[in-house]
Amino acid sequence: MRAARLTGWRAPLEIADLPDPACPPDGVVVQVLACGICRSDWHAWTGADPDVQLPHVPGHEFCGVVLEAGPEVTRWRRGDRVIAPFILACGRCPDCQQGNQTICATQVVPGFTVDGAFAEAIAVPRADVNLARLPDGMDPALAAALGCRVTTAWHALTGRAALKPGEWLGIWGAGGVGLAALMLGRAMGARVAVADVVPEKLALAQALGAEVAIDARGEDPAQAMKAATGGGAHVAVEALGFPVTAEAALRSLRKLGRMVQVGMPAGDHARVALPWDVVYSGQLAIYGTRGMPAHRYPALLDFLTATRLDLTPMIARRVALSDASAELALFDGPAPPGVAVISDFTR
């Protein structure tokens, strides 16, 4: 199979012909239809994620068609179209049994702990526990985003911060997960303010329904968001994993506000100093979040159906496998608006 393989930190990915993946007894082999290129993949590319060992195939945000199912698999068979969350839980431990699969102690993470989906095919262990069915008619490029950015945003808003209709949602970073949070928040009845340093991203956010767009290059963007939202956001989403946006997210909240750390703090940003005086005086709540439990897919898909929410405006670029290196390098600076998805694995 063709795959894009990381052989050196920050080096161009090597397009290689690798052996087809072996099917796990409890898993499946999936022909990849689409795979998103995410900032988390950039962390792996730069060497900031300690789980990644070279050589390595990145890619954790994918959907596809089942080519083969192992003998222990009961729910899936050849030809099924599926989506996979990027955290593959065991389904048996106490945390999994309580519905908290994202903290499973023996989790498998494609693109990080094992080879990922920048490839024509991928082996997915623990298939009965983790896979969800790809809805009929859903664009594979969009379905790929349901493996990470959309699901992460959904769980942040509903499973962690409990966003309510009428509340102000402040989003710091208008990348893929920020756009997903914007569109989901609007569909949930929230009012949305977005901050970013790229004017084109702010323009896209406004086109997608943001009432307030804050140019974070200004003198005090957190205060600007507080003023624009009549006293501060009720919920703030930090969607980049940077110290400056984590602090700004907290400072943009009104009293009793909730902040969700969605962006991945890694490398030089793994330890961040926060304004604890603001947390204390404002009686703020800080939530961490990572991914979404697989059992929550039906609720998300039902919500998308009920609200007729079209998330395809997130998809800005459909690229070839050979374009992955250039897309990863864009995350070294303010990346262009929208999400890039690998949809052509022949080039």
UniProtKB/TrEMBL annotation:
Gene3D superfamilies attached to this UniProt entry: Medium-chain alcohol dehydrogenases, catalytic domain
Protein name per the record: Zinc-dependent alcohol dehydrogenase family protein
Record carries keyword Oxidoreductase: yes
Family, per entry: Belongs to the zinc-containing alcohol dehydrogenase family.
Protein species of origin: Roseicyclus persicicus
Signal peptide as annotated in the record: none
Keyword terms: Metal-binding, Oxidoreductase, Zinc
Keyword Metal-binding: yes
GO molecular function: oxidoreductase activity, acting on the CH-OH group of donors, NAD or NADP as acceptor; zinc ion binding
Pfam family, one: ADH_N
Superkingdom of origin: Bacteria
Enoyl reductase (ER) domain: residues covered: 8-342
Cofactors (names): Zn(2+)
